[in-house]
Amino acid sequence: MAMRSSEPDQTRPLHDALRRLIKAPAALSVLWPALMIVGGYVSWHQWGAEHVVGPYQGVAVEQIHISPPPPFVRSDIVKSVYRDTAMEGLSLMDRQATAKIASAFSMHPWVRSVTSVRKLSGGIVDVRLDYRRPVAMVQVYRSVDGVRDRFFFPVDGQSVLLPTSEFTRSETAQFIHIDVPGADSANAEGMPFGDTRVAAAAILAEALAPIREQTGVVGISVTGDPRRVQVPQLELTMQNNARHYWGSPPGMELPGEASAEMKLRALMATDRTKSSDLTVARAPAR
Question: This protein's superkingdom (predicted)?
Answer without folding.
Answer: Bacteria
